[in-house]
Amino acid sequence: MSVALRPLLAGVLLALSGLAAASEPAQLTLLAEHPVEGMRGGNLSGLAWCGDALLAVSDRDDDRIYRFDVAVEGVWQAEVEPLAAPPAPLSGLPWGMRVRNGLAGMLRGGELDFEGISCDAMGNRYLVSESKVAVLRVPPAGTPQWLPLPAGVVRQARASGMLLQANAMFEGITVDPAGERLWLAAERQRRGLLVVHNRRGSWACRGGCVLMAEGGDELPPPALGNRARAKDFSALAFHGDKLFVLERLAHRICRRHPATAAVERCWSFSEVALADSRRYDSPYGLVEALEVDEQGAWLGVDNNERRRADGELRPVVWRLAAPAKGWLQQ
User: Fold this and answer.
1) In angstroms, rounded to a whole number, what is the distance separating the alpha carbons of residues 126 and 286?
2) Which of 14-28, 45-59, 66-80, 123-137 has the lowest mean pLDDT?
3) What distance lies between CA 268 and its chain's CA centroid?
4) pTM: predicted TM-score of the whole model, two decimal places
5) In whole angstroms, what is the distance from residue 167 CA to residue 59 CA?
6) Which one is predicted more confidently, 280 or 329?
7) Is residue 256 situated within a structural domain?
8) DSSP characters over 198-258
9) Strands 145-146, 134-138: parallel, antiparallel or unpaired by DSSP?
């Protein structure tokens, strides 16, 4: 290579490295960590701010919602709100898959397999059952009821390649404050986002339920090795009229357009989750729960009874700071 070309090549390489760096999501900062006592089944699988408290569900507990006092520093003691769900409706899944889902719940505990929770401004809680592919609405006062979701939700999801794998059904849920739009996240193989609309108690798909469906594999952060695995979603949150999606394997939170599901911006929490002291002996991501507000995000770790590198065996909730320019800036 001639001497004259070397500065040009160096400039090109520098520009390319700058583009690569710019494409990497910014890292979010950890503000606090809260191990949780008192979750009978462990397996923290969903978080939502409701009224004056942070609520949680476990995919091992069908009969309770947990409440956390976020003003407490350090270890949190989970408070129990009893829950009595009526029998779930038929899901529209094939008989064989319904049987497999039921047997899995009986064997591990948690037949309803609650994987997410969300709240509207009226205080209604919405819990998504992965095994039943259904949503339970729990009012502030009164009897919990399963939402009469349109049959098109499951039918359109399966036609788009979602809900075809056992233990890969609806993994996330969020609702807008008015209780008029409800989003569901299909976990993996294929992952996707769906929305249904509520008009005076009648739920319907307006122009189709499916916002997006996506297959394929991707690499996890380098700390988890170089084996590509299925792209996934593990939780949803709604803030500032935007949809926030937790991508478990990629260790990031992405803001998406609520009507199109188009990605607008992403942020990584890999440095928090994969710090040496917080590592689990798992090639997968274990963060399963998400809540977003103006000041930051709450993330819940479903350790599935795994012991962390520092010896921690309890479920953990992290508080992350919002990005410097806020969640809603481009």
Assistant:
1) 22
2) 14-28
3) 14
4) 0.91
5) 12
6) 280
7) yes
8) EETTEEE-SS-SEEEEE--EE---GGG-S--EE-B--EEEEETTEEEEEETTTTEEEEE-T
9) antiparallel
Per DSSP bridges, beta strands 125-129 and 134-138 are antiparallel
For residue 120, give both structure tokens: 């509207």
Number of domains into which the chain is organized: 1
Q: Are strands 263-268 and 26-27 parallel, antiparallel or unpaired?
A: parallel
Task: For residue 190, give both structure tokens.
Answer: 């294929």
**DSSP designation for 277:** G
Report the distance separating Cα 137 and Cα 266, nearest Å. Answer: 30
> Which domain CATH number covers 311?
2.120.10
pLDDT digits (tens, 9 = 90+) for 36-68: 999 987 899 999 999 889 999 999 999 999 999
**Domain ranges, residue 291:** 27-321
How far apart (Å, rounded) are the C-alpha atoms in residues 236 and 117? Answer: 9
pLDDT of residue 11: 43
